[in-house]
Amino acid sequence: MIEYALAFVIINLTLIFKKLKNEKLAKFLTVIIPLTYLFILMVFRDYSVGSDVPAYYSKFLKFQNNGFNTTEDYGFHIILYFFAKTTGSFRLFLVLLYLIYYVGFGLLLYKYAKNIQVALLVYSFSTLFQVSVSGLRQTFGIAFCFFAIYFFYFNFKSKILNWSLSIFMWIIGCTMHLCIAFFILFYLLNSIEFNYKKIPLYTAIFILCSICCKYLFDFFSLIGNLDYGSSGKFIGFPKVALLYYAILLAIVLIEVLSKKSDFISRLISFENVDKKYYSFQFLALLDILINSTVTFSVVFARFGIIFTIFFLFYFSDFFECFKNKNLKLLFYISLNIASVIGFYITCVRHDACNVYPFNWGFGL
Questions:
Q1: Could you give the CA distance from residue 4 to residue 21 in angstroms, rounded to a whole number?
Q2: SS3 breakdown of the chain: % helix, strand, coil, rounded to 5?
C-alpha cells in the first residue's frame, strides 16, 4: 500500500514547482516526476500484480518455446513474440509498453491539462489507471490513442497532416486491442459541444444504455465470434457512471448559475475557458454513457476507457475556473481525500484489476 500512497505524496509535492519562474520547466517537472514514478511501479512490479498479467506472461513463455500462433490483436502479439524470441525478457517488453504509454500520457498532460495535479489525482482512481496495470493489450492500444489525440490537436500548418498522423496512430492502436476501434467516435464527435439544454436527452440516453446494453453485447458476440456476450442477467446499476454523471451535471449547474448570480461569478468564472473545454465536456459525457452499459456485464465498459482522458482534462479545466483562492484550496483538499477514498474502495476493497496488493519484481 505504501507504494501507491507515495504516488499521492509525489503528485502533491510537485506543487512546489509552481514557485519556479520558468513556467515550462515547472510544468515539465510536474509531469515527468509522477509519471516516472508510475513507470517504475509498472515495470518493476511482480507479475502477479494486475489480474491479466499472469496470462500475458504465460503467453510470452509459450512464444519462447513455440512459433507465432494467434488469431487476434496481431500488433500486440507480434511485439510480444519479437521480445520473447530476441530478448527472452518480459520485463523489457514492459519497459517498451509503458515508455510509449507514459510518453503519450505525459504529452497530453503537458499540452492540454490546465492543472496537472488535479488530472493525476482523478487518474489515480479511474478505470484508466486500473486497466493500465492489468490489461496490457488495451494499455498498448490506449498509448497510441494518446498520440492520436496529441497529433489531432497539434498546431500543424496542414489539417491533413493532423488527421493523417492521428488516424495512423489510431490504426496502430486497433492492432493492439479491438476495443480501440471505438475511438472512431472521437473523430465523429470531437467538434460537438456539450449543451446543457439537452440534459434531458443525455439522461434519457444514459438510462437507455443501462437498460438495453444487453442487446449490444449479443450483437458483438455475433461478429467474428467475439467473446463479448453478456450473461443476460442484470448485475446492478452503473454506480461509477452514475457518480461521474452527477459530478458532470453539478459542474454544468455551477456554470449556469455563475452566469446568473453575481455572488457565484465572484467565486468561479467560465469566461476564459477555451473551445476545447466544451469539447472535452461532451467527450467526458461520452465516457460516462459508455460506462453506463455495465449493468449486464463489466466487459463493455472497456470500449469507453480511452475517453476517460477527456474527463481528466475537463475536470482540471474546471478547477482552474475557481477565482476564490480559499474555495480553490478547499476543493483541492477535498479532491485529495476523494482520490484516496476512491482508490481504496475500487482497488483495495473491491480488488479492481488486482492492482492491490503491490509487490516488487526485478527478474526477467
A1: 30
A2: 75, 0, 25
